[in-house]
Specification:
By secondary structure, the protein is α/β, with parallel strands linked by helices. It folds into two domains: about 140 residues, NAD(P)-binding Rossmann-like Domain (Rossmann fold); about 120 residues, 2-Layer Sandwich (Dihydrodipicolinate Reductase, domain 2). The chain has eleven helices and eleven strands. Strands 3-2-1-4-5-6 form a six-stranded parallel β-sheet, with helices on both faces. Strands 8-9-7-10-11 form a five-stranded mixed β-sheet. α2 links the parallel β2 and β3. α1 packs parallel to α11 and α4 crosses α5. The longest helix has 19 residues. The protein starts with a strand and ends with a helix.
Length: about 260
């Protein structure tokens, strides 16, 4: 079995380590990143890893792909998958919005599209209520001020991140607007949108004084249930914009896929 990891940042590297720890004797592992130096560094640490230098080549080579790069990369990857259908796990879920036609085509060809729960919990309840109708859904995300202050949206709109004991609202809009404004740090909103089957919902992003945690609060109302789901996540030590829970979620999904595919 050949597995391809696209994107060698915090998530991709952590998934690679997880695979080597548990399945190194069962798989061939390929990596691709537009940062060739990063790939070479990984190759030194894991000599068995094989480097690919284009999306086309890694897609053609592998049976299962793990995307952990960026929304831009997803947009480049989807047309390649249309030509060479593969099972894929997507972490940059914002890149899938508005791409239903290609995703449906892949599923019709028997390919698995895996979208991990990422940095949030309660997806099972949201999926259950989606079929019955969700009346209202709001996502409130609280990120450390130090993480948000350099975001392109903050700089472009000249938003001053203030020192305060209270969280500062820096963004309020729908999911598509949030993903466009914060493409590297609000993929949870896209995950919720896909699993809730809603056309849109409100996203609020706050700059928080809490330097140690990223918090997501999901508030949902339906005819049969009112849910409030709060997730306090510790950031990854390698990338403070990424929750450690998101990495753990990706590793779990990869583990389940490999064990099911290899019957181990």
């Amino acid at each position: 079995m050949k597995i391809g990891i696209i994107g060698c940042g915090a998530i991709g590297t952590s998934v690679l380590k997880h695979i080597f720890l548990n399945f190194r004797n069962h798989l061939q592992i390929y990596i691709y990143d537009n940062n060739f130096q990063k790939m070479n560094e990984i190759k030194k640490e894991y000599p068995e890893v094989r480097i690919k230098r284009s999306l086309n080549s890694i897609v053609k080579e592998c049976n299962f792909l793990i995307e952990s790069a960026s929304i831009k990369c997803v947009h480049q990857l989807l047309p390649v998958l249309n030509k060479y259908p593969r099972d894929v796990l997507f972490m940059s879920v914002g890149g899938l919005l508005g791409k239903d036609k290609i995703l449906t085509a892949l599923r019709q060809k028997g390919k698995k599209i895996i979208i991990p729960s990422g940095a949030i919990a309660g997806i099972d309840g949201i999926k259950a209520l989606a079929g019955l109708g969700i009346k209202k859904l709001v996502l409130k995300t609280f990120k450390p001020r130090e993480v948000l202050k350099d975001a392109p949206y903050i700089r472009k709109n000249q938003i001053k991140i203030k020192k305060s004991n209270s969280p500062q609202l820096v963004f309020k809009g729908n999911v598509k607007e949030a993903v466009k404004a914060f493409p590297k740090s609000i993929n949870v909103s896209a995950t919720l949108l896909i699993y809730s089957r809603l056309k849109e919902f409100e996203v609020q992003i706050y700059a928080s004084n809490d330097r140690e945690r990223i918090t997501h609060i999901i508030e949902m109302i339906s005819d049969i249930s009112q849910l409030t789901i709060t997730c306090h996540n510790f950031p990854s030590s390698e990338n403070p914009r990424t929750s450690s829970l998101a990495i753990a979620s990706a590793c779990m999904e990869v583990k389940n896929y490999i064990e099911e595919s290899l019957n181990i």
